[in-house]
Amino acid sequence: MELLPTKATFAPGEPLEVEVRDAHGPVTVTLFRLDEAVAEAEGSDGIARFPAQPEGGYGVEADGAASALDVLADPLSRPRYGFVSHYEAGRATDGVADNVRRLHLNCVQFYDWMYRHADLLPPQDEFEDALGRPISLDTVRRLAAAVREAGSLPLAYAAVYAAGRDEWPEWADDGLYRADGTPWTLGDDFLWNVDPTSDRWFDHFAGDLDRTLGVGFAGFHLDQYGAPKRALRSDGTEVDLAAAFPALIDRLAGRLPAARLIFNNVNDFPVWSTAGAKQDAIYIEVWSPHDRLEHLAELVAKARLLAPEKPVILAAYLSSYTGDEEAASMAERLQLATVFSHGGATLLHGEERGALTEAYYVRHKELGPASEDAARRYYDFAVRYGDLLFDRDAVEVTRTHLGGVNEEITIEAPVPAATDCAPGVLWARAVRTSRGLLVSLIDLSAQEDDRWDAPKRGGTELAGVRVAVERARRDAPRFFAADPEGSPSLRPLVSAHEGRHDVVELPAFRTWSLLWVREDG
Length: 521
Fold this sequence. Notes:
Layout: E1 2-5, E2 16-21, E3 28-33, E4 36-42, E5 47-50, E6 56-62, E7 65-71, E8 81-84, H1 94-102, E9 107-110, E10 126-128, E11 134-136, H2 137-149, E12 153-159, E13 162-164, H3 168-171, E14 185-186, E15 191-193, H4 199-212, E16 219-223, E17 230-232, E18 238-240, H5 241-255, E19 260-266, H6 271-274, E20 281-285, H7 293-306, E21 312-315, H8 325-341, E22 345-346, E23 349-350, E24 354-355, E25 365-366, H9 369-384, H10 386-389, E26 395-396, H11 398-401, E27 409-412, E28 417-418, E29 426-433, E30 436-443, E31 466-470, E32 478-483, E33 487-493, E34 496-498, E35 501-505, E36 512-518
Parallel strand pairs: 8-9, 9-12, 12-16, 16-19, 19-20, 20-21, 21-22, 28-29
Antiparallel strand pairs: 1-2, 2-5, 3-4, 3-6, 6-7, 10-11, 13-15, 14-15, 17-18, 23-24, 24-25, 26-29, 27-31, 29-30, 30-36, 31-35, 32-33, 32-36, 34-35
Helix pairs in contact: 1-2, 7-8, 8-9
């Protein structure tokens, strides 16, 4: 049996519906908000219907099956970014819509859907893209409609400064050039870079985007290529792209006020200047030298400091999926645990059952059932506990409360516990949220390295982890634990009062466990 919300995200005031697939007989479905059951519904006709609920994340359970859903006024306040990349004539849309619902992908990038980079809309519905792929604009429209119907936002890919071979002569005077006078390009003869500060280019580009909204898109994924960072115009004037990009984003937001905008900060460039621009999220495509899991955590933390009101999305492609799928799935779980536990989101999954292995999304990996199921469990977990993981008022307290001379939180485990990410350790993080203390534990004890894009060993269950929290009030707090692979439900733990601390032993877990310390009032 499978529980499948009818939408990736529900709006406030909207009744909640969960499809019950392959059930044998009547089923009672229970809706949870953190540790509390808030509603029940019968799913005997294939749909369990709940009344509208307040904003937040919810768990869904029935007869051993589980899923999650959330209610958000703005889906991009807690984004789960997906992708589509195939638009053949007559393509069915059901598989994409199911994946959007299953992984709660509430925004979807339509990658390379367009006719040309400098002319997005085709002269007719059936056409070939810049690389000769056959594309049907009718399929693009139907996929956009299906994504919307599934409760998600379809976003059209658009490069902010690219012209192809046929278009380049028209834009050469507004191009970006190297010091030796040669133009900046992507590939030797594929795309030429146009100055994003050019008024002539802006009028063309903004008009192209405006017309594109008629296809059914809710906004745009604005791409750049990471280089150049500084360049020259044809007249020798210097262009600083770190200043040009936020100015372009703001101008586009003014011209297209109804469009949702996400800009690609390639390898963190230039987040320091674009964070304050009028866009809906901070999106970072991750490349070396950001190689380690801790680098992913640092990227999220820095972006959240620069713009606390905006969500952070990382695109960290797993080339490991081109090899041993089981080892790559373990690498994905560690990536998701790292990013989600630090309050970030990812772009990794899309199509019908695809995972990204490189920047050209057309060449994604089709996952097997075991990898799909593992990913679903982690996405469910992030949605269900979004009120804790993505609390914008949360404060990092790891190194002020845990480890070293700190005594507020202590951890005893059969493997070394550490506040720094490293192979062979239990990586701990502590956050003070508006709902209490949250301790995240990621098990790296079986790993030989902490690179995020490298095959990883499957770990065994880690048992015997004890966490002690110094009591700050007269009444003891309540402790709950959950993990995405074993028990997605918050389980209440019995604590013992030892000296100044309340001590609990966590249930055995694999990969990632959350401990929530709830202080009522």
